[in-house]
Specification:
By secondary structure, the chain is an alpha+beta fold. It is built from 4 helices and 6 strands.
Length: 130
């Protein structure tokens, strides 16, 4: 069966970086992706979240369409809340090397359990210091 246009774009998606148009300034970029979905690795049931990304760019910014397609790649992936949130953080940090990065996975309740996962470059610095 032939892939539909959007499915093909998602399958081939790769995060892209662009040069920061104002590297001399310190400014914050906030991105919200309210329709994130993946599959529970245990049950196979869908999990839904709002992914919130906040970063202070250095030399690069993320190209937004590539980010959208990258995040949509998770929809058929069996992955835990913790692993998904941390992988998004790791991939963005590796690509951009920003001055600051925070990724929050705000997961919809399932089975009466609400989960929020937060990964921040500030916390990573504290870990390496102690």
């Amino acid at each position: 069966m032939e892939l539909k246009y959007g499915e093909k774009e998602i399958k081939e998606a790769k995060l892209e970086k662009w040069p920061n148009p104002n590297p001399e300034k310190i400014y914050t970029i906030n991105i919200t992706f309210p329709e994130f979905t993946c599959l529970c690795p245990r049950s196979g049931y869908p999990d839904f979240a709002t992914i919130k990304i906040t970063y202070i760019p250095d030399q690069y910014i993320v190209e937004l369409k590539s980010l959208k397609l990258y995040l949509n790649k998770y929809r058929n992936m069996y992955i835990s809340h913790e692993e998904a949130t941390n992988r998004i953080y790791d991939d963005l940090y590796s690509l951009l090397q920003p001055k600051f990065l925070e990724v929050i996975g705000d997961w919809n309740p399932r089975g009466n359990v609400k989960t929020v996962i937060r990964v921040s470059s500030e916390d990573q610095k504290e870990k390496t210091i102690t």
